[in-house]
Fold this protein.
Amino acid sequence: MRSEALIACLLAVSALGCAQGGSDGDAGPDRPPLMVDAGSEPDAGPPPRDPSECTAYVCPPGMELTALGGQARCSRVISPRPSGARRYCHFLTSHGVLGFSWMPASLVFTCPPEMEAAPNAEAGYCLYREVAPPAGFETACEDFETTGELGFVFPCEL
């Protein structure tokens, strides 16, 4: 059966199928009509992609790239973290800074090696500096105080 005829036949399939055959061995008196199985499971789609296939963006050192549902995420969990540590994510857009702080500054804490220690007289800070997230990003720090997760999400570039 020619491909155009097969396509037309598939489009015209009804409960009876394609009872009229073409010239090269399709449905006829000795063969059942072409039927589409309406009860089959829908295709689950392509397998999940490796995050490295999802985007060319390179996360800051120490952060992990994950991808799911049209978004990519650069994040890391800070553990252990100082008592009372608070997220410091509001300057990511304007200054390229992402991290966390704690008070008082006199509380001794060693920042992860990929982050810069930046204490002042009042508070201690561990910061990523010069972070340039992709267009359309949003910070993903809202659970830092409970989970220790810092990061950002952005549209996945497939």
Observations:
- Confidence is low (pLDDT under 50) at residues 1-43.
- The longest strand covers residues 71-77.
- The first helix runs from residue 3 to 11.
